[in-house]
Amino acid sequence: MQAVILAAGKGTRLRPLTDDKPKALVEVDGRPLLEDVFDNLLEVGADELIVVVGHLKEQIIDRYGDTYEGVPITYAHQREQLGLAHAILQVEPHVDDDFVLMLGDNVFRGNLGDVVNRQREDRADAAFLVEEVPWEEASRYGVLDTNEYGEIVEVMEKPEDPPSNLVMTGFYTFTPAIFHACHLVQQSDRGEYELPDAIDLLIQSGRTIDAIRMEGWRVDVGYPEDRDRVEEKLRDELGRDVVSVTLTEPSSEAETD
């Protein structure tokens, strides 16, 4: 299973932590964010890592080279940071089949394996973890609008007036159909090619999309205070000697934090 990691960002909101390094190399609890992402992907069975690099890319390439823990790394170069859909298109020549996508600035302790399992069972064109966030934070994310039956009818990127507080996290699986959708996406008002717009095109075309509720926790490290929050959560986990990563379908007995 190939895994794509988006790690080309500058991390301007993370300054001064990113004054001299790419966002993905900001350290949390003494380790770069990117290593935590790699470890999560290896846990769910990734046998190739495809890293999209851009800003200060040499630091990432020099640090990790061609392999991580024996798993080969391929680098794809995003020369302009024009959004996540644009970043995904940079890996199109390297992807052979279904793949996992993970954002390089998210720390997860949760049921990532459920998404991979669902993809294999349902052959959905997209599957991803979702979570409810405080309403005032929803406009930071890709927001899902659902009908009365709980079916996803629309996905929108950072809406000013979110229709719900149910948002996509930074972990997805896709079939190659996502590449066609990304090619069709129009530039947003923010000047970017948005991944939620590509997923919305899949929805509107009748493709199978699965949303799986997050179990455990996730932190999107966008600001310096987010890094502090992650480190506090990790310290709490170590204090209890509990790390929960679920690789099977969730059950009522699943251990979460």
TrEMBL record:
InterPro entries: AglF-like, GlmU-like, NTP_transferase_dom, Nucleotide-diphossugar_trans
GO molecular function: nucleotidyltransferase activity
Transmembrane segments: none
Keyword annotations: Nucleotidyltransferase, Transferase
Cross-referenced Pfam families: NTP_transferase
Keyword Signal tagged: no
Nucleotidyl transferase domain ranges (all copies): 3-227
NCBIfam families per UniProt: UDPGP_AglF_Halo
Full protein name: Glucose-1-phosphate uridyltransferase
Lineage of the organism: Archaea, Methanobacteriati, Methanobacteriota, Stenosarchaea group, Halobacteria
